[in-house]
Amino acid sequence: MSQIDSPRTFPLGRHAVKRLGYGAMQLAGPGVFGPPKDPQAARAVLREAVASGVNHLDTSDFYGPHVTNQLIREALYPYSDDLVIVTKVGARRGADGSWLPAFSDEELTQAIHDNLRNLRLDVLEVVNLRIMGDTHSPAEGSIAAPLTVLADLQRRGLVRHIGLSNVTPAQIAEGRPICDIVCVQNHYNLVHRADDDLLEDLARNGIAYVPFFPLGGFTPLQSSTLSQVARRLGAAPMQVALAWLLARAPNILLIPGTSSIAHLRENLAAAELQLPEDAVAALDGIEAHGIPDGKAVNARSVPRPTAP
């Protein structure tokens, strides 16, 4: 699919959201733990995102913990009718900032109530069940028990729609009879494409696919091919990486995060970047496995969180 032919919106639950959204994880402090250095600047980024037309925000109450949800509430409440706030449960933070699984009935129920309270909502529009797996890669294992708890909370009217994060195709297949799955949030970007087949299967079933770390996360993407294409188009490499994702499949919804208004504007401009067919072909040729041209490298000594 060429980007010219790509739709600008895709269904997410009961809403059609713009395909370029915003992820709030980076608004918390270092390691996604504690408050940001400048809360006022963080709130300004959120207001700028919505003022620029973003209507899909990704967050979680375990970012901080509580920090990003509180910033969203302070910056944006009362929310516009078309704003879809997607949160996630399934993890909690240790006193040392560690990321711990939280799948018991009590932990999941508490997480839903924490999200409702800190976002000041009566019902959560979309909640992703985040499976801890193997850091940023899913690991096989039944998800029926925690997903059943979340489905019960949905029946009680606290959750409107349910998604899954960091999951395998088998886990998605296990989950769909338990409840309707409206989105899948997995690690995917220009150089990390393990989900190629899954992405296309979800597209056939009308399920949104939301890549986390679309720009490499805390290990930014680097590729000589990406840089060459960006120079030819007069664009930033990360804009080209986002534009490639938008052209990759119609059900991809992007949530790149940043704590900078300038970077936010740069990311959002990628929605208007048209990639020529030869540029798409060159980018398609980048492989994550065994070819050094396409890779994510840690350009800065930034603590890497274990749960996006």
Describe, in plain words, how this protein is organized in 3D.
Strand 4 (56-58), helix 2 and strand 5 (84-89) form a beta-alpha-beta unit. The strands form four sheets. The protein has a seven-stranded parallel β-sheet with strand order 3-4-5-8-9-10-11, with helices on one face. A two-stranded antiparallel ribbon has the order 1-2. It is built from ten helices and 13 strands. Helices cover 34% and strands 16% of the residues. The two termini are 28 Å apart. Residues 288-292 and 296-304 have low confidence and may be disordered. The chain is α/β, with parallel strands linked by helices. The chain has one domain (9-219, 244-259): Alpha-Beta Barrel (TIM Barrel), CATH 3.20.20. It has helices at 39-51, 67-76, 105-119, 144-155, 169-175, 196-204, 224-233, 237-248, 261-269, 277-284; strands at residues 9-12, 15-18, 22-23, 56-58, 84-89, 91-93, 99-101, 124-130, 159-165, 181-185, 208-209, 221-222, 295-296.
Side by side, the strands of the main sheet go 3-4-5-8-9-10-11
Give the rounded overall mean pLDDT: 91
Q: In CATH terms, what is the fold-level topology?
A: TIM Barrel
Task: Using the alpha-carbon principal axes, give the shape.
Answer: globular
CATH homologous superfamily title: NADP-dependent oxidoreductase domain
What is the architecture at the second tier of CATH? Alpha-Beta Barrel
How much of the residues is beta strand, in percent?
15-25%
- Please give the radius of gyration in angstroms: 18 Å
- What is the class in the CATH system? Alpha Beta
**How many strand units?**
13
Reported for the largest beta sheet, the result is: 7 strands, parallel
Q: Helical residue percent?
A: 25-40%
User: Class by helix and strand content?
Assistant: alpha/beta
Please count the helical segments: 10
